[in-house]
Amino acid sequence: MTYQELQEKARAAFGGSCLACPVCNGLGCKNRMPGPGAKGTGDTSARNYAKWQEIRINMDTLCGNAPVDTVCRLFGRDFRYPFFAGPVGAVNLHYSDVCDDVRYNDILVASCAENGIAAFTGDGTNPKVMQAATAAVRKADGVGVPTVKPWNIDTIREKMELVKASGCFAVAMDVDAAGLPFLKNQTPPAGSKSVPELHDIIALTEGKPFIVKGIMTVCGAEKAAKAGATAIVVSNHGGRVLDQCPATAEVLPEIAAAMKGSGLKILIDGGIRSGVDIFKALACGADAVLIARPFVTAVYGGAAEGVKVTIDKYAAELADTMQMCGAHTLAEITPDMVRLPK
């Protein structure tokens, strides 16, 4: 299966809810929700993609000709590449009923683990979503990251028991999901968390690396670190929770600079659609990236084979970019290898 064939099959499986565009840039779906679009005008999702394209690569082939090593070490574990599948929930609502969250996570977690990376799994109002996601992670020997929504503390406690039983190497919370409609007006309340509340949630993991997803400011990164987070994901939830946000590419350099030396690992998502984009993110200070929507296309268009095709595509593009810039390991990717917009 080629990447083009994968997209064609996904387009048919989506039934019009997602256009499976040749490049997933947020323009085709804009504010289509339910669907893969974004909140309000749809500006933020499109901006996420566009701002990566404004960053250019500084080519340098006057360097030693050596093999490229893309191995990424995170939380004491080696991964073949510095990118992961991001969490996606309610796929049957937003895409089509070809998949539900249970089947989607089952395919994605296993396929990512088989191909040297890990998948972040989604969460939902139906308890079976987290049950199935953590079961999939357990079957993959813990190679997966369950992502818990910012529910009330009692619900979080219940879900954390499933998380711990999965044997996962890390756990995440997408605090930016506080802007999703289904979390609003819940009883008991769900939504944004204070630093003390987040500290108490992190304590429930009993020392497991904790990733806070949804950080868009230096202040937010500092708060996450104060609460005890091991890592953050610079993310605006793909533009799905707040219109008119800056792009993640715009805020990454300042967050990375401010947190340098803190020990906090920095991941990023939002509009990353190629191995070249992955290289740009690493050069701007990220330790690794998350990619979400394209993996939905991968699962709907080709199941396990589709996931492999997608991973191979990004991996080849990343390795080629590293080779053409003289970076033979991820540690050799430096800020001077990219040109930022002025």
TrEMBL record:
Cofactor: FMN
InterPro entries, sorted: Aldolase_TIM (IPR013785), Alpha-hydoxy_acid_DH_FMN (IPR012133), FMN-dep_DH (IPR000262), FMN_HAD (IPR037396)
Keywords attached to this entry: Flavoprotein, FMN, Oxidoreductase
Pfam family, one: FMN_dh
Reactions catalysed, as given in the entry: (S)-lactate + O2 = pyruvate + H2O2
Protein name: L-lactate oxidase
Domain FMN hydroxy acid dehydrogenase: 37-342
Keyword Membrane recorded: no
Tagged with keyword Flavoprotein: yes
Family listed: Belongs to the FMN-dependent alpha-hydroxy acid dehydrogenase family.
Organism the protein comes from: Caproicibacterium lactatifermentans
Top-level lineage group: Bacteria
